[in-house]
Amino acid sequence: MNILIIEDDEFLSSKIQKLFNKKDEVNIVKVISNYEDFLNNYHCINNFEVILVDIYLWKSNNKDTWIEIIKLIRKKNKFIPIIIISWLNDIWWLRLWFDSGANDYICKPFRLAELEIRVFKWIKDFLKSESMWSNDILEYKWLKYYFENHTFIYDCKELKLTKINKTILLLFLSKKEEILSDIYLIEKIWWDRWDIIDRNLRVTISRLKKSLNVYWIASWISNIRWEWYILKTF
Question: Contact at 8 Å (CB) between 80 and 50?
């Protein structure tokens, strides 16, 4: 799961980033501090499951750039959760944020624990809308993923996986029986690490399959012509 923070307060963004980096279920926490940086990274918006947006980026020339940011996000993705970060909380502002396409807001100063609850709530709802969930469980055949404790269960046994392996397996499970490109996986796993080449992806997936082999399900992940992957029982 990946989180994007658009916030120019370095102290606050650092605290938020550290909070979520400690979470086993979070893969990437990306911080963007200005509008220009957002535009440079706009092509990768779909790699995130939730976006936090500060309404005032003081280094930007236009104080209303947050509206443009939301419009651009919605142009790229109509469903990704957007949480406004602001010290304003009167009704006029609330109406403007929601009319602009935001899903939620949190008023500064806020408790990090409250932000964590809101973020994971929206991530769960977003993932559920993207995949076929049963309550808080994502499953395929006898493999189940439990969102609340970020665990995979197969045949009543918990899979012992590293953080990166859980990230990759969740990607496959949320897109089960869909063909995934190497570019899609590389961007979702490593974001903007363009030094990560296809060989690194193959090695990483090979390690995941080695871990899954203990449970006799390594063959569920197949490589197609070295550029595509799929989770499917043939």
Answer: yes
Q: Are 159 and 153 in contact (CB under 8 A)?
A: yes
Pair of tokens at residue 65: 């750039």
Looking at residue 62, its pLDDT comes to: 58
Q: Domain boundary at 113, 130, 147, which? A: 130
CA 20, CA 92: separation in Å to the nearest integer? 31
What confidence score (pLDDT) does residue 93 get?
86
Last residue of a domain, one of 130, 161, 186: 130
Q: How far is CA 144 from CA 129, 135, 137, 184, in A?
A: 17, 12, 7, 23
Residue 225's CATH number: 1.10.10.10
Residue 198 scores a pLDDT above 60: no
Do 106 and 188 lie in a common domain? no
Q: Which two tokens stand for residue 42?
A: 């706009």
CA–CA dist 2, 4 (Å, integer): 7
pLDDT at 94: 86
Kindly state the percentage of the chain with pLDDT values over 70: 91
Q: Which of 165, 139, 163 is nearest to 233 (CA)?
A: 139
Q: Please report the DSSP string for 84-119 in residue order.
A: EEES--SHHHHHHHHHHT--EEEESS--HHHHHHHH
Domain around 41: 2-130
